[in-house]
Amino acid sequence: MRRLLRAELAAHCMRNSGQCYDIPRAKDFLRSYACSFFDLLTGTYSHKIVIRPREYEIALEAIQITLKCWESLNPLIASETWTKTLLEAITLHVGRPLGCPQTSETEVGPTTEPKPVLPSPTIAQELKRLLNEARTRPEDIAEDAGIDPRTVYRHLSGDSVPSLRNTGAYERAISKRLKRDVKLPVPVKRQ
């Protein structure tokens, strides 16, 4: 995909001297490819991490890859000028804010403290919390959800990640006991 981006920029926007003669078109290419790189990285990382809390970092990585392609053409326009535009394009592509990055003290000033980004609970942690809230034993949820009790214990310990089917069964069983709608985090399979 990097090669394709460089080829399209070279063919449609750049002269051999490194001068970009069609900046709006180059901007469109860079925005489109930044979103494509973001999707590619998100798909790649989805098997290893929970994506949502890391979307901002993944977006920055996609932008970095995109800008490396731009810089490889030796353009006269510095790549730093594109960062904000590409981040806005990815945010529009996702359809919601990507989250707030950790800011350093020099960026926000000494009087303001950055808010810590709390990690999302794992499915095992959330399942334990909901069982405690419902005052329910794992065996009871296993029976309600139609899941082997040994499997429930593996899910609670984090040794195994429940399938989407099991996650749905847990949600229905716990929702029934708590008499409210319950949603568990989307399971991410381990590699």
Structural description of this entry:
The chain is mainly alpha-helical. The protein folds into two domains: 2-100, no CATH class; 123-178, Orthogonal Bundle (434 Repressor (Amino-terminal Domain)). The chain is 58% helix and 0% strand. α2 packs across α4 (83-94), α3 (55-71) crosses α4 (83-94) and α7 (138-145) crosses α8 (149-157). The relative contact order is 0.10. The model is unreliable at 102-111 (pLDDT under 50).
What descriptors fit this protein?
single chain, 191 residues, mainly alpha, 434 Repressor (Amino-terminal Domain), 2 domains, 9 helices
The SS-based structural class is mainly alpha
Mean pLDDT: 79
Number of domains: 2
Radius of gyration: 23 Å
Low-confidence stretches: 102-111
Question: Could you state the order of secondary-structure elements as H and E?
Answer: HHHHHHHHH
Number of strands: 0
- Portion of residues in beta strands equals under 5%
Biggest sheet layout: none
How many helical stretches? 9
The helical percent reads 55-70%
The quaternary structure here is: single chain
What form results from the Cα inertia axes?
rod-shaped
**Separation of the first and last Cα atoms:** 25 Å
Q: How would you summarize the topology of this molecule?
A:
Layout: H1 2-12, H2 23-45, H3 55-71, H4 83-94, H5 105-108, H6 123-134, H7 138-145, H8 149-157, H9 164-178
